[in-house]
Amino acid sequence: MAHPSLSILLAGPRGFCAGVDRAILIVERALEAHGAPVYVRHEIVHNRYVVENLEAKGAVFVEELDEVPDGVPVVFSAHGVPKSVPAAADDRGLDYIDATCPLVSKVHMEAHRHVRKGRQMLLIGHANHPEVVGTMGQVPDGAMTLIETIEDAEKVQPADPDNLAFVTQTTLSVDDTADIVAVLRRRFPNIQGPRKEDICYATTNRQAAVKAIAEKCDMLVVIGAPNSSNSKRLVEVGEKAGCARAILVQRAGDIPWDKLAEGSTLGITAGASAPEVLVDEVIAAAKERFTVSVEEVRVAEENVTFNIPRALSA
Question: Which of 131, 154, 197, 236 is catalytic?
Answer without folding.
Answer: 131
